[in-house]
Design brief:
There is one protein chain. The protein is an alpha+beta fold. The chain has one domain: Immunoglobulin-like, CATH 2.60.40. It has three helices and eight strands. Strands 1, 4, 5, 6 and 8 form a five-stranded mixed sheet that branches. Strands 2-3-7 form a three-stranded antiparallel sheet. The protein is elongated, with a radius of gyration of 27 Å.
Length: 140
């Protein structure tokens, strides 16, 4: 019995020490994974932030206009696809030509009556805004 116990202890000790010495072949700078999977806010002008509004809300049209003072004004025709009143929150991120956020409007409660299309207008704070993303989420 003693002859089997000692070799078993040695094998167990070697197993524990070998488990802690795993090597990681990836070293140095690594590229990010899934860079195009969740980038809708960088590519689209109108995004829905959760599943509830994804089913219930859509956008029938966007109308960007540059005002005489150079600021960007965006009007969005937001549509309620359901036969019930919806209360959502909406905001607009104004961006420069490279897509970097310059300013953001506060989240506002927006009420959509049954099967309606309501227009919401946003105006940027300065004349540097060239792109935008309107975001809609469930009201909480």
């Amino acid at each position: 019995m003693k002859t089997l116990l000692f070799p078993s202890l040695i094998l167990a000790a070697l197993g524990f020490t070998g488990a802690g010495c795993t090597t990681h072949p990836e070293t140095g700078a690594l590229l990010p994974q899934s860079t195009t999977k969740f980038d809708q806010e960088m590519r689209e002008s109108f995004v829905l932030m959760d599943k509830g509004v994804q089913y219930s809300v859509t956008c029938n049209g966007l109308q960007p206009v540059t005002l005489p003072d150079g600021r960007l004004q965006v009007a969005a025709a937001v549509r309620n696809r359901e036969n019930r009143r919806l209360q959502v929150q909406i905001n607009c991120e104004f961006k420069d030509l490279n897509g970097f956020a310059l300013d953001s409007t506060p989240w506002e409660t927006f009420i959509l009556t049954e099967n309606s299309i309501e227009t919401k207008t946003f105006v940027s704070l300065n004349d540097k805004a060239k792109k935008y993303t309107i975001r809609v989420r469930e009201a909480r």
